[in-house]
Amino acid sequence: MSATLSAYEGIVGSAVIRQLRRLGEKLKGTRIVHVNSTREGGGVAEILEWMIPLMTELGLNASWEVIHGSGRFFEVTKSIHNGLQGHSVPITGKDWKVYEDVNARNFERLRPALEEADIVVVHDPQPAPLLKLCERRKGKWIWRAHIDISRPFRPVWKVLRTFVEKYDASIFSMAEFAQPLHHPQYLVPPSIDPLSEKNRDMSPEEIEAVRNGFGLDPSRPLLVQISRFDRFKDPVGVIEAYRMVRKVAKVQLVLAGGGASDDPEGTAILEEVMEAAGSDPDIHVLLLPPDSHRTVNALQRLATIILQKSTREGFGLTVTEGMWKGKPVIGGDVGGIRLQVVPHHTGFLVNTPEGAAHRIRYLLHHQDGIERMGTTAREFVRENFLLTRHIREYLTLMLVTLRDPRANFIQV
Amino acid sequence: MTPFEVKDCALLGRMSGLPPAFNLRELRERIAVCGENVLFHHFCETTLRGTFDNPDYRNDFAVWSKLYLGDRVVAERLGILDPYSFPSLGELRAATLDVLDERLGESTMIPWARPGDEFFFLESTTIVFDAGIRFTQPSRLAAFIRKMTNGSVYYHFLEARRRPPLGVDDFTAWLKEDEEANRPYIQALASVDFYFHTLPHLRHELGRVLTEAKVSK
User: Fold this and answer.
1) pTM attached to this predicted model
2) If you measure CA to CA, which chain A residue comes closest to B19?
3) Scanning every residue of chain B, which has its alpha carbon at the shortest distance from the alpha carbon of A333?
């Protein structure tokens, strides 16, 4: 159950909530439909889970639709996803046909909602062909790219572009992720919900119960990486870094993540990780069910240092979550992690397992730095990366899209 | 006095369509031709944009020159430019180009950024709306400012300087309705070196100087 807007007043202040209500009044009754490809697992589903009820509370007529597909469809869309992030992936004409056919079947089911909507926000590549199919659309359509497509594998982008360039606008998390397109390209970084199960405060007893449940030693430093078992998150590189640190410090490592229903590669990567971990009792590889939000919350709070050693990354919400728990983050020097982790200020950016090992050792030697960086990180998240800022930007985006997409100044 | 109507604003950033700059010369070329909205965004609106950093400089050109070109000399010269001290954005652009031309003339090698660290030229749309708050007593200004959003502080104290009467913030313009009686408040607002504050700091500072002015009034 999501919290109501007033529940956030204690965290962000009443002025911020009042601001959202005033903006919401300007959009009262606007029909907005979000479409993505999974209801659980991954950052997009998490964002939509809180965004829909809060937009409804603000007076918008908001709904969330999910496209359904076969295993083959999700294998293809995973390849598209990897291709957009720069991997050379073979996608045949038949694969693209599967992609379009599944979208066509979903369109028939979603047609009434999509045709009537004032604004449709289509998230990521999976449902992108829906626009082409919706010939009798009345509203504005926006493509929301959550991933880094700055250096895509060109053959994949060339085809996907034919679907997305017809949208009225697109949204990217950062300027660095955008591709040149003819429509307005807005920039909206994602955010976290401070009252969600994954981020809300926890009692010490609850946290200790998770520690005991996984057999973690309270007297030794704990390194935690939370993420899907995905090659781009480099979990094997994290184990390499851990082994380098273990030569001098008795640290423990938790690699925890869930699978997502639209990610068929997860099982294979998990096997690779298990093999790399071997029989080391201080490496805890945890495949968590999708609803393990409180477990993830506790693990992040138990961490001495949060790791997110990705080699490609969208925004990296697990970094934001770690910072909200007041922890320094050692992250890969890629994507949105670069936006969030400011070296020596909120953590460190690294490029290799060696770099990660070096910074883990550095922080273990500078305990005061762990505390200082953690406090700074939490305050930056409070000011800029909580859902209240995210909602404000979406409301602003809707007002701009419905009135004048290229205006510099709009009085409402 | 007429009631002060509190407005609020929200910013939505977007790509400007200009190609990114990979080196100091490209930065100069793009600044020479970019729209004024782009210039305004990188000098003035950065303060409203979400960030995880509290950079040394308040404009994006200076921050990028320091962090990604590694040219601290040009960063310092760009960093001290106060956009609100120029009568127009055209003159701000000319001053910025002077700094860049001077540095390009001094340099034997043009500083460049590695791929992924290029400078992206952005602009934004500002949506302005009524915050639904009114007050009439200047003595309550400090209390109201303390409760304002970053958007309201930005709109009334910074963005206002772009609107007639040019160079004057909305609080001062309102206080001037009774200039004699409100002189301590007007002087207090004028004493704030506002460009180098973040918005939360600016809100705190405005509240502080107005409270002190009230005490001494």
Assistant:
1) 0.88
2) A180
3) B116
